[in-house]
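Troubleshooting log. The previous run stalled partway through. Resubmitting the same two chains, unchanged.
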Amino acid sequence: MQDICLQLLIMPSATAPSTPIDDEPADAVLVSRCVQGDSGAYDELVTRYRSRVFALAIGIVKNEADAWDCSQDAFIKAWKALPKFKGESKFYTWLFRITHNVCYDWLRKRKIQGEDEFDDTTQGSIAAGSTTTPSAADRPDRALVNSELGREIHAAIDTLSEDHRTVILLREVQGLSYQEIMETTGADKLGTVMSRLHYARKKLQSILRNDS
Amino acid sequence: MNHSTPNEREELVHRWIDGELDPAENARLEKLFAEDPELLAEAKSLKSLHVDIGESLPVAVEPPYPDFFNSQIQKRIVEDASRAASPVKEAKSGIFSFFSLPWAVAAAALVAAVVALVGKPSGSESGSAFSGLELAAAEHGRSSVSTTYAPVAGVTATSFFSEEAEATVIRLEGLDALDDSIGVDGQQAASYIPDANLAGGTAIYDQSGALLMVLVDDANGGPPTFFER
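Second attempt completed without errors. Output:
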């Protein structure tokens, strides 16, 4: 009998997107090879950024299965759009923007289809310890994730609007600068990013204070 | 810059948290902290929240089956290129939906037991054990699995539509032999219910609602345990 098991590899929090180690080609080199039709180079980029794209997608759509599909779509869209990528922003910022747009499209479609038809509580109803439902909260090596405070923060973030949740994910989790967040979300100005971030933090602070 | 209003001071605090202040603004804020203990306390509280959020949410989460994740992208790139040359209507695979569902392991275990797992055609009633399979609509309203993937080395997954059963059959080959003590028969599962009372167990029922079996995860990470009715 085979034990088929899904697992998520949770990586430590960081403040900047992953960068290639010394003997790996830079993003720009890989992008250049991709534009020339080298899908192997794109495979390297996918490997390099899939975990961050997937983490961002989970944070926005709040569903791992759909996050998987959104991440796939984001990488496919990015591949198709690579010839238009001028390198004016960093590759990961550009990729995050595509991911953000794909996830927002998904959220929009879900709303059109009717939220009643979509059971957001599915994950919570699954039997504890189920091998088919990987969850960050199941990892014993992530102490804060499993802590009371971690759960409260997760719950508080879930109450935020999509725009406020996204800016929190991009700034506090992915470590993007205001400028990069503006490029990723398509906000019209830095002030919009700052305003959303400040509001989101104050809202989270208020929620967490009331809970405590 | 003169940060005299509450809003301006607040903005200064947030930008301080994010490390976006220039030296002059930093000095200005330090002076404000010295003059206003409440502002300092608020800033420390927000800074603490900033740290807690960063520690409570993973910056990177490797998607399940990362090799499959990559290969699907490569596959779709090739398909898209082919489609551009000669457009062919094709359903999206969405195979992860299968693996994401709690009955997936149970279904896979049943496959191991009976060699072939009989699934319902697309459009089966909601709540069916197999309704989560993303079955691509094929000709004549029949169903077929658009993509199969076996994560265990040496195991291959194939599928076909059985005229006799009027159902899609998924076959896994290369699985380890079953222990003779496990007497799972070939009955068709129709629904599942995760049961918190069973500490990770999932109860599987047939179409009449009778309990077929219970799958309980091993607490030590070993293979799941089956309990027959």
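Takeaways: The mean pLDDT of chain A is 79. The first helix of chain A runs from residue 27 to 35.
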